[in-house]
Design brief:
Layout (H helix, E strand, L loop, with lengths): L1 H8 L5 E6 L5 H9 L2 E5 L6 H7 L6 E4 L8 H4 L6 E7 L5 H9 L7 E7 H7 L10 H9 E9 L12 E8 L10 H13 L5 H4 L10 H10 L13 H12 L2
Parallel strand pairs: 1-2, 1-4, 2-3, 4-5
Antiparallel strand pairs: 5-7, 6-7
Amino acid sequence: MIGKIIRAADITKDDLVIEIGPGIGSLTQFLAESAAKVIAVEIDKSLIPVLDDTLGGYDNIEIINEDILKVDLDKLLDTNYKNIKVVANLPYYITTPIIMNFLTARKKVNSMTVMMQKEVANRIKASPKTKAYGSLTITVSYYAKVSLAANVPQNCFIPRPNVDSAVLHLELTENKDVKPKDEELMFAIIRDAFAQRRKTLVNSVSNVNKSDISKEQLIEILKSVGISEKARAEELDLRQYALLSDKIGGK
């Protein structure tokens, strides 16, 4: 499994790797052998002496004893390295905020290769018109191209967890195919749409950002971009949400 993660991350000697949650350093050693430098961020203070011992033979590893959600990412990513890649076995209960913090950081990383609960992975890579498809799917797809690197069965872990896991590779893209005029408005529409996903878009997004757009105007906007007035949140892809937000923003 470590080999699959290393191959999916495509680590080279030009890369700075940010590892989140190194644990006892099993993956960290392999990352250090392939990368120019590894910065391992570990919240558990009791593991620092273990990491110092297991990784003592490497001169290209820096260990930071901090909570990744409290780390100043602008400072962490302020580097002259050619590429920055994130590799992590993410704590399942904070998977989404960690991913979003890196995706929206001022200085972009090149890629993220991350292990997470399979249910969350399925939501991130879901297709429109499916139950798993939601605001997380669309938001991640705006910033990155997503691919499945590996499925991870429960017996890969000691102790064995109660859930299956998966490794996703997120390749961050600078030149977006979808470029809304107002990102904030687009994401507000997406949030409102999925907050009431059983309702039609006409009923769920007509009051987005407290705009004075009427339902009749919204129906006309939907028709103008080829969307049915009976459409629900899960029926639209990222491109359609961008078109919708541009139309609403232009009113």
